[in-house]
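Hi P.,

Sorry for the delay on this. The queue was packed all week, but I finally got your sequence through. Input first:
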Amino acid sequence: MDGGIGIIALARIVVNNAIVLLDYTRQLRDRGYDLEEAITTARMVCLRSVLMTAAATML
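Then the structure:
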């Protein structure tokens, strides 16, 4: 039972992080970045927050 709740919680975090990454990529595209540059920049900027959120949830 507890394991199932943990898996659901981690899945929610993964989906939330993906939404944040996609939204920031879209913002960069609107600012004039090409697709590859927007994806690379968004990954670098969002990586820290994604890792901190995931680590806090797992702990």
